[in-house]
Amino acid sequence: MTRTGSPLGRRVLFGVLGVVVLAAVWELYKALGPATGVVLGDLTVLPRTSDLAMPHVWDMVARLFRPVRSSGDDEMMWQAVLQASFFSLGVAAVGWLVGVVVGMLLAILMQRFRTAESALLPWIVLSQTVPLIAIAPLVKRWGSQIEIGSFSWENWMSVALIASYLAFFPVSIGALRGLESPDVNHVELMRTYSVGWRATLIRLRLPASVPYLLPALRLAAANAVIGTVVAEVSIGLRGGIGRMIVEYAAAAGGDPAKPWAPIFGAVVVGLLAAGVVALIGLALTRYRRGETPA
Amino acid sequence: MSTAPSEQGQPVASTGTAAVSVAGVSKVFASRKGADVTALEAVDLTIAPGEFVSLIGPSGCGKSTLLRLIADLDSPTSGSIEVFGKTARQARIDQAYGIAFQQAGLLPWRTVRSNIELPLELHRVGKPARAARSSELLALVGLSDFADKYPDQLSGGMQQRVAIARSLAESPGLLLMDEPFGALDEMTRERMQTELVRICAETGAAVVFVTHSIPEAVFLSNRVVVMSPRPGRIRDVIAVDLGRAEGRGEGLREADSFFEAVVAVRESLHGEPAGAPAARGVDQR
Ligand SMILES: Nc1ncnc2c1ncn2[C@@H]1O[C@H](COP(=O)(O)OP(=O)(O)O)[C@@H](O)[C@H]1O
Ligand SMILES: [Mg+2]
């Protein structure tokens, strides 16, 4: 039996260890690195080590437990960040879901019809070369023109749409590979049972695609989160982590630890998204037997 | 209509429709470079219900191709194939045969039991009937204790037994097997052969069995079809009379009649003039 991965406990331990090492490297560089940073030509390779550019780890953590505006009696920073994180996570989840559904449908279509594959695949690949910055305003403009009855397009939908645009790609490619992964042997066996394409899809191709699908879902989740954060900024959606990062960056001068708070929030969103996909993987363990590390 | 011409060794029981009737079948694979491969040429073969026939011959002589034509996984360039009096296509649709390949081809995400139940499930057999049938088959191949294991938890021989059980799920009158024991070690192989003889006796199915091994072919078969390559033809059909299945135990492997049949097949395979005169008169190339 070839199983990958280690017991949960050890993986968590390694995760924590990674964070500790990262913090140690940060502090070590801050203590020992040159104050002006490392500059090659015009290019800053490593940042300056001032408190302004690189606050102490403990300062950044402590900042989470003070009110949002240092003076007022606002809610705690961590509360604000968490709220924004969940908002972004929700939008990203919608985008992810739409992306997964579209990606799966495209993959199934391409598997079913050779011609669809040769007609669609180049466009799918090409679609990912269009920069987010270019499509965000377009999506917003188109969205604002949609109004059907009581339904009206809202900004968060534009963000989710952009997230799904980034998420569908790995799913369509991964699922296509997965759907085409069964041996000739198995496909012919289904033929000897004289069952049609649908039964072959459900009993053979979909289950066989799971090992290919899971990494694609993980990648789609990461893409959806990044897409959401970036699109929040370019579309100007309030309430999420993306907007918070931009707003707090402006406060860096007087409160250098503040901009880092929403960045931690973004990390949390990423971790939660990865966790959800891991749970999906756990639920599909049966279909990952004999899975070989790619 | 389904009487094949010049065959040595007649079918054991030639009453009723033949299990398989192959008449004048040729198969040419067209290749892009223009060099067509004639995999089979003018093949005639009739197999009676309940008869065990082995196909033997060097690699590339078209054994698998012939089996695939019978299974309707491919269609002949010319000639006709009937299975229980129907076209190969209709026979496939009616599930007239079960099939097993060299690779067990089990679905790794299904337990042993649900692998065996796969064809039943696909053909909408109800759950209780499925469970009853799979229990029966698990007992038949001696894997009752492994019903809930997954294929990767089984040895190669066990996997192959599951594949055989699966091929028997719908009680087909015909079993098509392409080197099913080819990947097994010699010990396992002999045990599986003995088991297969017993299973065939119990189910009464006709078998077309592709193999590389002369002793295997002789031990299992009523008739051994010796094929020659380029183009694939039937060179000889050798009747092996080792008695009916019930009497065929391990002791048979040491019997004189067994060795005589092995020698006959070997001579035919190596094209020695010793045996009967060549089975065909139209051998020009
Ligand atoms: N799908 C195919 N396309 C082209 N040539 C094939 C194909 N299948 C088999 N052949 C050729 O037909 C011949 C017979 O093959 P096969 O029936 O597999 O032989 P065997 O099973 O006796 O080893 C070989 O020369 C092989 O290369
Ligand atoms: Mg072969």
Structure, described:
The complex is a heterodimer of chains A (294) and B (285). Chain A is built from ten helices and four strands, in the order H-E-E-H-H-H-H-E-E-H-H-H-H-H. By secondary structure, chain A is mostly helical. The longest helix of chain A is centred in the last third of the chain and has 39 residues. The two termini of chain A are 16 Å apart. The model of chain A has no long low-confidence stretch (mean pLDDT 86). Chain B is an alpha/beta fold. Chain B folds into two domains: 179 residues, Rossmann fold (3-Layer(aba) Sandwich); 65 residues, no CATH class. Chain B has eight helices and ten strands. In chain B, strands 6-7-8-3-9-10 form a six-stranded mixed sheet, with helices on both faces. In chain B, strand 7, helix 6 and strand 8 form a beta-alpha-beta unit. In chain B, helix 3 packs across helix 4 and helix 3 packs parallel to helix 5. Chain B is globular and about 50 Å long. The N terminus and C terminus of chain B are likely disordered. Classes of the chains: A mainly alpha (294), B alpha/beta (285). The interface between A and B is medium-sized, with 21 and 22 residues. The complex binds adenosine-5'-diphosphate (ADP) and magnesium ion (MG). Magnesium ion binds next to helix 1 of chain B.
